């Protein structure tokens, strides 16, 4: 079991009148190499779930085992290590650093990982090449289209070759053609054995995944595999 | 992430955000430059003030003694004798007086006018530096006033007692009358009366008081014939050391109290007196200088603080932008330590560059201010104030620059990412 969460709660303003239960007792198990879509309306708690699964946020209650490790007991430093080595993030808003060019953005996680200066440029270029952005290596985010920025963000997510990719509405800001291209890259990563978590509100996007987990009001209301025809 | 990486990231970040970096530096630049210039100018002025006292010599006691009945140098003679009796404490005594009448000094074709007020126009032709002074002194005039003989001899005790027509020249008077020839043994006339030059002094070479060299010293016993005011009331007593100064002052005080006994009303009908040492003048001057330095230093420090607040403002304005950047960095695996290190270096580098520029401007400013205000050709700030201002600015910048990093790096990544 790669991801194993049990009775997970994320509660804001607990005990007050404005209490919000973003996650209301979620349990979920995901195996290595799965392609899971987490779908739900806005406010259903799917982004919160990804943030908790990605160690970007801490749950209020509940257990979270990542590859057998109890994540809730880890230190800040150990969490940083997990975010760096185990998980690659793709955000709706790309979240590239504006002052750095594409190559530098992709190199950043490798620097934090401690990859030697000789290897990391090669690794970063390889990641850019995988998303077809090698010829834009020295462009800054402001000089690229949304689709190009998202591809750079994907290159950054895969540069450290993490076993898990978490994508939060990766196509949300893109037109349907570039969106399809991004999904194609995710499918390719899946075929290579990477575990993919795709968060979306759009059922047609979710249709690309092998398993769909449906959230509503912070609860899992459906969890089923689906057959997909990718060709 | 190693330190070198952090340095590279910091430089990258600075060069990419030029405007912000420059604005941040500006506060530091202005602060450091103003501190350096202000303190340097005050220090330069103080140095000049103290130079005067150093050249004049220390352990000098000023005695004012005015007898209501003395018109025959009686008090001078008594003080002179009394000082001789304290030879274990005192090096010498001389009247501190000069001829106030209009005088003409001649040597062959050369003429010097002394106190020729009519021919001096107050509007602009008046040249204080070229004014000559006809001093009334004892045989210990040179010792008391820190002059060194360049040639010849001092006046002797007998010259004074017998009112011999001899004189000793200051270097300014010697140059004016004799150029570069030896004046010893020559005779000059003062208002027609011949005076034998027996010696001349080396130059005091004080930039601000060149008139200290423009003197002709004659025996004080000439005061009766040459000065309308025939009474000498001011004296300089040179003591051997600082402790001797204190002791001699006590003794002189007691002696003069005996000379001018007070009546029941608490005042003397014989005369009046007053004893003070220039050690206390120098101390007053020194503490005044210190006060000035402190006040101006405080003003300059405030400008540095304002600079620091400027930095803080800039940093706070960009805090959300940076918070998001920190969120991104954390999401891709940066440890808190790496982020703080990067921001620390960034702030330190910005402030150091600003500090160096500030010191550069401060040096140029000090040079200009030194030339304009103090007439110093090459005045540069002291090392202490330079290093001090630099360190202060760097520390300020680091404290304020670190603020967003410390704050944002402690957030959950998702919270930092949400900052807009």
Gap from first CA to last CA of chain A: 29 Å
Uncertain segments of chain A: none
Distance between the termini of chain B: 27 Å
Shape of chain A: globular
Strand proportion of chain B, as a percent range, falls in: 15-25%
Could you list the spans of chain B in which at least 5 consecutive residues all have pLDDT below 50?
A: none
* Structure classification of chain A: alpha/beta
The total beta strand count of chain A reads 10
- Give the strand tally of chain B: 13
Helix content of chain B: 40-55%
**Helix share, percent of chain A:** 25-40%
- Look at the structure and give the mean pLDDT of chain B: 83
- Work out the radius of gyration of chain B: 33 Å
What is the N-to-C succession of helices and strands of chain A? EEEHEEHEHHHEHEHEE
Number of DSSP helical runs of chain B: 13
What's the Cα radius of gyration of chain A? 17 Å
Greatest contact between two chains: A-B, 29 and 25 residues
| Pattern of helices and strands of chain B | HHEHEEEEEHEHEHEEEHEHEHHHHH
Mean pLDDT of chain A: 91
Shape of chain B: elongated
How would you portray this structure in words?
The model of chain A has no long low-confidence stretch (mean pLDDT 91). Chain A has a 6-stranded mixed β-sheet with strand order 6-7-8-3-9-10, sandwiched between helices. In chain A, helix 6 links the parallel strand 7 and strand 8. In chain A, 46% of the residues are buried. Chain A has 231 residues and is of the alpha/beta class. Chain B has 2 domains: 183 residues, no CATH class; 181 residues, no CATH class. Chain B contains 13 helices and 13 strands. In chain B, a hairpin with a 2-residue loop joins strand 4 and strand 5. In chain B, strands 3, 4, 5, 6, 7, 8, 9, 10 and 11 form a 9-stranded mixed β-sheet that branches. In chain B, strands 2-12-1-13 form a 4-stranded antiparallel β-sheet. The mean pLDDT of chain B is 83. With 420 residues, chain B is α+β, with helices and mostly antiparallel strands. Helices cover 55% and strands 17% of the residues of chain B.
